[in-house]
Design a protein that fits this description.
alpha/beta; four-stranded parallel beta sheet; 9 helices; six-stranded antiparallel β-barrel
Length: 276
C-alpha cells in the first residue's frame, strides 16, 4: 500500500489558490520540499488570474448534490464553478484555497465547495495550508479517504477540541448548511462526525516531522463559538502533552478509524520522524 501510494503521488499537482494565510503556523511548505519528499508539484494560482465567481454559471453538480437544503446556494454554486474551472485549467489533483480575501470582498465562502470536493475524493483544503493539503493527499492515497482538516481549538485533560467548516458530508450525519463561523457569511457544514475512533495526523512545514495519534470521540458539540462541525477527542496522554506543548501547526487532519500504524510505516519509509 505504501509503495503504491508513493508511486501514485509522483507528479500530482497541488494548486495553491491565493497565498498561505498569514496567521497560520508552520504551514507554508516550500515547493522544492513538496517535490523532493512526496513527489508533489506545487501550482500557484493568484486570485487575479481567476475570473470573478459572479461570471460563472452555478455548478449543476454542486446544486444537484445539495438539493433540498433550504439555504440559497446560488452564489456558492458559482464559487464551486470557478474552482472547478481552475482545477480543469491547471490540471490539478488537489487544491488549498486562501479563502478570506474572497469572503471579505464578496461576502461568499468556499467552505461548501471544498466540502463537496473532499466528499468526491478530491483533496481540498482551506486557508492555503500546504502542510495540511500535502497530508490530505497522502491520506487519500493510503486509505481512500480524504481526512477532515480541523482547527485545534483547545487542549485540556478532558479532551482535545477540534472544529472546522469544510468537512466532507460523507464524514458526518444529520448535517445542515449554515454560515461560516468567523465571518457569519456564506455557507458551511454543521454535522455530527460519524466515527467514534479517529486518527490524528499532521506534517510540519519541512515534511521532516509528523504527529500521529489515535483517540476516541467523546463529544460532538454544537457550540456557537466555534467552527460549525466540532468534536472532542480523547487521545492517549503522550499525544495530549504533545498537542499542548509542541503542536506542529494550527490544523490537524482527522481520519475515521485507526490508521496510525499505516501512517507510521509510511513516515518511516519517507524518513519523516513521527511523534509522539
Amino acid at each position: 500500500i505504501v509503495k503504491q501510494a508513493m508511486k501514485t503521488l509522483q507528479g500530482k499537482k497541488l494548486g495553491l489558490i491565493g497565498e498561505v494565510s498569514e496567521w497560520l503556523v508552520a504551514s507554508a511548505v516550500p515547493e522544492e520540499v513538496l517535490r523532493s519528499r512526496l513527489g508533489i508539484d506545487l501550482v500557484r494560482v493568484a486570485w487575479k488570474e481567476l475570473a470573478p465567481f459572479s461570471e460563472f454559471a452555478p455548478s449543476s453538480a454542486f446544486c444537484d448534490f445539495f438539493a433540498g437544503h433550504p439555504a440559497d446556494l446560488t452564489q456558492t454554486a458559482r464559487v464551486s464553478a470557478m474552482l472547478e474551472h481552475a482545477i480543469r485549467l491547471h490540471g490539478l489533483d488537489a487544491i488549498t484555497v486562501e479563502c478570506f480575501p474572497m469572503v471579505k470582498r464578496d461576502h461568499v465562502t468556499a467552505c461548501l465547495p471544498l466540502a463537496k470536493f473532499n466528499h468526491d475524493g478530491f483533496p481540498a483544503g482551506c486557508e492555503g495550508d500546504l502542510a495540511s493539503a500535502a497530508g490530505m493527499m497522502l491520506c487519500r492515497e493510503l486509505t481512500g479517504t480524504v481526512p477532515w482538516m480541523a482547527n485545534l481549538n483547545k487542549v485540556t485533560a478532558a479532551g482535545c477540541h477540534f472544529s472546522h467548516c469544510a468537512i466532507s458530508p460523507g464524514l458526518v450525519t444529520d448535517y445542515t448548511v449554515t454560515t461560516h463561523y468567523e465571518t457569519g457569511e456564506g455557507t458551511a457544514i454543521a454535522g455530527d462526525f460519524t466515527s467514534d475512533r479517529v486518527t490524528l495526523f499532521r506534517f510540519d512545514s519541512r515534511l521532516e516531522k509528523a504527529f500521529i495519534a489515535t483517540g476516541e470521540v467523546i463529544d460532538r458539540p454544537r457550540s456557537a463559538t466555534a467552527c460549525r462541525t466540532q468534536i472532542i477527542v480523547k487521545p492517549v496522554e503522550p499525544a495530549v502533552r504533545s498537542l499542548r506543548e509542541s503542536p506542529l501547526g494550527n490544523h490537524h487532519l482527522i481520519l475515521p478509524g485507526d490508521h496510525a500504524g499505516l501512517l507510521r510505516l509510511t513516515c518511516a519509509r519517507l524518513g519523516i520522524q513521527a511523534k509522539p
